[in-house]
Amino acid sequence: MAYSKDQLLARLKELQIEFSQYEHPVVLTVEAQAKYVGNLGGALSKNLFLKDKKHRYYVVSALADTKVDLKVLSQRLGLGKGGLRMAAEEALVEILKVPLGCVTPFAVVNESARHVSLLLDQGFKAQEYCFFHPLSNDMSISLNAHCLDKFLKSIGRDPSYVDLEANPPVGKDQPPDLAAFVPSDAPILSDLPVKAPTQDSTGKHVSAASNSAVVAAKAIKPSGNAQNVKEKPVNTVQPSIPAADAGNFVEELLDRASALLLSEISEDSIKQHSGQLGAEVANNIKKCLREDLKNLATIFKNTAYTEGFYAGTRYQPKRL
Amino acid sequence: MEKVEDQNPQQEEDQVVNPWEVSAKDGGKIDYDKLIDKFGCQRLDQSFVDRVQRLTSRPPHVFLRRGVFFAHRDFNDILDAYERGQKFYLYTGRGPSSEALHLGHLIPFMFTKYLQDAFKVPLVIQLTDDEKCMWKNLSVEESQRLARENAKDIIACGFDISKTFIFSDFDYVGGAFYKNMVKVAKCVTYNKVVGIFGFTGEDHIGKVSFPPVQAVPSFPSSFPHLFSGKDDLRCLIPCAIDQDPYFRMTRDVAPRIGYHKPALIESLFFPALQGETGKMSASDPNSAIYVTDSAKDIKYKVNKHAFTGGQETIEKHRQYGANLEVDIPIKYLNFFLEDDVELEHIKKAYGAGRMLTGEVKKRLIEVLTEIVERHRRARAAVTDEMVDAFMAVRPLPNMFD
């Protein structure tokens, strides 16, 4: 199931992305790679596969001479001072599906790497072209950052470039500037029932996702219902068109209604309304949920319309 | 003949209110009565709110009930026509100068969504990327990118895609739209535009020729793919009151080129957390609640930075009560707490000193967190494809359903 070098190259050609390829003996380090492609004018990249204490993974891809300080990066991501370390070799193979010495931004094409966050050195943009491994260490391909972006966008990734050498202060009044790059762990970990908007919504649920709402929208490929929990096997080569899923939509509506219903029925309310409790609760549910459910329905409608629109723009008229 | 403000707004004026600057006299509060008087628009009184309720058969929006949208031009004409079965369309917009949107930015959009739902009418949303490119000196690409990013937050406010057309100036200006721009431009002298907007000899010609761009979405013929054959369709523009100059100019020109004057419904400024001295600023993160703020951020910002009218000590507070005139949490609750009864209760108790500042802040934090959370979830469901669909030049066959 892992993407192969040949599949990647074919895909780049399909997308009409300009690149050059160079075969060489297997290399495990940037120095070794430099021996074969170092004199060709482009910039070499060094690629780190990192993980944090909550088992979230990051690919940091930088120019070979950009200084990457893991302590600084960890703070800028909001992980505290020692939050980042190099990931284990097993994780490399299991998640990125590449061998040792072959970490590359292209590895995020794999389904298993959907939640790996990708940080790209803004130094790439100033280079005419940069070298990366195309999922295998016996080849290097060179391409312009713009072309890399095209590829990343085609797999639903949002290419974001970062000044990796910057060391901005992080404190109470200066939030970690790279916090948006921390992957949201929503799809895998949250089989929590959807709560009706409660009065005491805690910080946890929101802060993990609020900053990465934009990242999440791309990396997680949510379906029409914003609280998607169902995983769908997605062909990572196609752009992500989240589906308007009627089942999820209805589940969300029912979850909210039943949560509100349960909160309305208590000893006190039974005592207060006795026989009229049914009518009272029904009215309250309608009053409280009306706007919320309408909003959910509008999101569903907009998503379904978008699906249809997308299909319509790619419709092939009947041949006469 | 309605009053048209011709003086250069910077000259001998105490408060400054125009699309690029809002500041009160001597760092005090904005005097809205003076503003209405100076601009020449009308107050939106309770009779309008009642009439809207009658015509739409639903409770009026919290912003109407609380006087957030407090001024108008010709809203009664819109309602009269509506009663006769003549629909209208809505026009609002945003200048995409930053990626960070705060709650103040969402206010016109929240209200416009309510108007779309209540009156069942179509909406055009203009993203003035060209304006920001010119005024904020952004690159063309960056302003276009910001326009798309802002579009996602706007869509997250809940607009119906089958009745809404979003467009960016860089994409859409041309064709029928441009023809109207030229018609408008021919009717406004250089001196007039300097008088309305305060341009100087140092301002580049891009700025001077921009106003028609924001004017012509008020005319249905600017959107032939939507309103072809409906030249008589009226336009209602919900906006913050600092946009009034553009539309005063537009209303002046409209009859001269054979179009209806657009109607306006205008809002107060959303005060900054630190107090009512002007608008929230997108460049000071602590002056505003952003749509990307976490619950923790909101709690911190309200607790640490919200300017309150509470007394210095509990004893004094219990004795004298809070100064509701300057209290920011009360003002914010006025905007966002739906329950009229609860708000009244809080105001009474806090004003009398029975309720403490901490309790009011706590309630505000709950309300704001809910709003931001709901927005964040809706935003997560907005994809690039959805933005493309909203921004596609396509017919909207069900726009009045």
TrEMBL record, chain A:
InterPro entries, per database record: ProX/PRXD1, YbaK/aa-tRNA-synt-asso_dom_sf, YbaK/aa-tRNA-synth-assoc-dom
Species, as recorded: Gossypium barbadense
Highest taxon in the source lineage: Eukaryota
Listed GO MF terms: aminoacyl-tRNA deacylase activity
Protein name from the UniProt record: YbaK/aminoacyl-tRNA synthetase-associated domain-containing protein
Pfam family, one: tRNA_edit
The family this protein is said to belong to: Belongs to the PRORSD1 family.
Database matches in CDD domains: PrdX_deacylase
Domain YbaK/aminoacyl-tRNA synthetase-associated: 24-146
From TrEMBL, chain B:
Enzyme class of the recorded protein, top EC level: ligase
NCBIfam families: trpS (TIGR00233)
Lineage: superkingdom: Eukaryota
UniProt protein name: Tryptophan--tRNA ligase, cytoplasmic
InterPro entries: aa-tRNA-synth_I_CS, aa-tRNA-synth_Ic, Rossmann-like_a/b/a_fold, Trp-tRNA-ligase
Enzyme Commission code(s) on record: 6.1.1.2
Chain intervals for the UniProt region annotation (Disordered): 1-20
